[in-house]
Amino acid sequence: MEHPGKHQASHTTTPATTPIPELIREAHQVIRTLCSGTPAQQLAAVDGNFTHDATFRHTICRVPSFGDVNVPLLGAVNSRWVIGCIYRWYKVLSPRIEVDIESVVLDHKTQRLYVSMAQTFSLFIIPFYYAKVPLVTVLRLVKEDDDRFYISAQEDYYEPEDFVKFFLPGAHWLVHIFQWFTVAICVLCALLLAPPLKAAQKIGGWKMD
């Protein structure tokens, strides 16, 4: 990963040489810029830290990997360009975003960064509304010819009750109720089926393992 700047180098999975503290420190800066930077800063962060064919997966959107495609009026478009549009629109939806990064852990074997954080955002269409949403972001890294790491894939993971806070204020309680209901169903079914299952084990030698 690097500070904002354009690139399009070929990538490999050569073992890391960048010092781990520096890599993690850069990850903090890049994430904050992507979430809360100006549109120009966001664009520079995407161009300077994602591979041109990077992928993006979110609960409600997905960007597959593809290289440059010539589009009328737009010119060369690739998956990194689409990711930049997603971040730009995210900033429009919530002009003010605060990011609290709790931890950044690097898995050396898989070359993945696991980022645990929380975003506090406010929708411009709902005055005075804001929500703090925790999530885990997984960044797949590749090392390119310039001996730096770039993001080849980003995956964002939310709990259901946290994700609904993005667009339905208060709806997380509905998710909680549904979760409690499914727990009650599991307990009820386990109690009701316990006697016949126990009998089946004794009579027919049926095993559940």
Plain-language structure description:
This protein is α+β, with helices and mostly antiparallel strands. Residues 9-17 have low confidence and may be disordered. It has 5 helices and 9 strands, in the order E-H-H-E-E-E-E-H-E-E-E-E-H-H. It folds into 2 domains: 11-170, Nuclear Transport Factor 2, Chain: A; 171-209. It has helices at 20-36, 39-49, 79-93, 160-163, 172-204; strands spanning 11-12, 50-57, 62-63, 69-71, 75-77, 97-107, 112-121, 131-144, 149-157. The strands form 2 sheets. Strands 1, 2, 3, 6, 7, 8 and 9 form a 7-stranded mixed beta sheet that branches. Strands 4-5 form a two-stranded antiparallel sheet. 38% of the residues lie in helices and 30% in strands. The radius of gyration is 22 Å and the shape is extended. Strand 4 and strand 5 (75-77) form a beta hairpin.
